[in-house]
Amino acid sequence: MTMIIGQVEKEWKTTLRVFERVSDAAITIAGSPDPLIAGKSSVSLTCEAKGSITTRKWMQNGETLSPETDRITFSDDNRTVSISPVQKEDRGEYKCQVSNPISIAEGSGTLIVNYGPDSAVVTVKSEYYSSGDNVTLNCSSESSPAAQLQWALNGTLLDEKGPELRLDPALTSKSGGYSCWAYNSKTQRYKLSSPASITVLEKVSGAAITIAGSPDPLIAGKSSVSLTCEAKGSITTRKWMKNGETLSPESGRITFSDDNRTVSISSVQKEDRGEYKCQVSNPVSNAEGSETLIVNYGPEKVEIKGEGHEGAVEFGQKIHLSCSAESVPDCTYTWTLNGTDEIGTGASFIKENSVYEDSGNYTCTAFNNITKETNKTDLELSVKAPGSLGGQGGLSDGAIAGIVIGVLVLPAAGGGGLRPKIQQHT
């Protein structure tokens, strides 16, 4: 091109490039084998178009595709992408953008990679169910195409197939480990899930305690007893309670059977009396039985109480003595004076007008009709002249003196003799 500027002629040169618009962009896919199988197959994607192509750009699932060493490579002109071997992450939509300075076109193709099953997982809402419940198990598997699923119980294939297994209703016989087999017909691969445990239990009911002992009735220090807990249903745990507290074994005296079904007590003591409960349960239900254990004991701690002054009453004053003892069942009481004369029965001894002859040693003897044991205590009482006690009569609680406790003991077991007499002075 020549131009005259003023009187000077100048010349410029330029290059004119003519481009044919790009069009009909398309991707062709070639691979072996067909279908593509992850880890085994290779594939190539070739981008073709009409027109003057100056650049090619590859995209996978909306992101720029970059070469990956030894696995994804590009031809020198960027026309072909080769993938060897294909993996499951190579699946998806591929686009090829071809362009020149005046036009652009885009072709696309979808790459299907068959893989798996890479996993098989069984899920279930809970491990434990009551007999008669409806139970649903689900199996999922990562696979393309979707895997065929078949169920197994304790390793044995069942007829049931598909992603869902229904136990309707659940029976105890259907307890066990459920797993599923996943199979991909394209890859010819199998995958077995880990088992999911299902336990179907009968609800516990009708809990009750039975008591067996010898002799009957139970006598502290002599008898032994066993308490047995029975119930219907599937029992997984038994817990024993006594008077609201957990019952624990006691070395050599209170023992539990291996299955916790029976508690044995040998020999029973008075502290063993009370309410016993047996709580039976399984993960879906519970029940409770109770029974009261009566232990006969005593009499123990026989005691005389009265009113008055220092173990003395004035002539003509009222004598009022009361006797008590710890005993089950309640014991009977007999009163004697000076060890020979029986002067009354019952827990109280009352004489309205005392005389000098009422002075002496008062003995209260307690007798338990079940244990056949006797225990007694003594009180020395003096009748004083009128006015000598300052007008006070009877016995004060804190002024009882000369009490002698003697135990009338039954013949020793197997010996036939008498135990030594035990006395306590206070």
From TrEMBL:
PROSITE patterns linked to this entry: IG_LIKE
Q: Which organism is it from?
A: Coilia grayii
Q: What is the lineage of its organism?
A: Eukaryota, Metazoa, Chordata, Craniata, Vertebrata
InterPro entries from the UniProt entry: Ig-like_dom, Ig-like_dom_sf, Ig-like_fold, Ig_sub, Ig_sub2, Ig_V-set, IgSF_CEA-related
Keyword terms of this UniProt record: Disulfide bond, Glycoprotein, Immunoglobulin domain, Signal
Entries under Pfam families matching the protein:
Ig_2, Ig_3
Q: This chain belongs to which protein, by name? A: Ig-like domain-containing protein
Q: Does the keyword Phosphoprotein apply?
A: no
Outline the extent of the Ig-like domain.
Answer: 25-114, 117-193, 195-296, 299-382
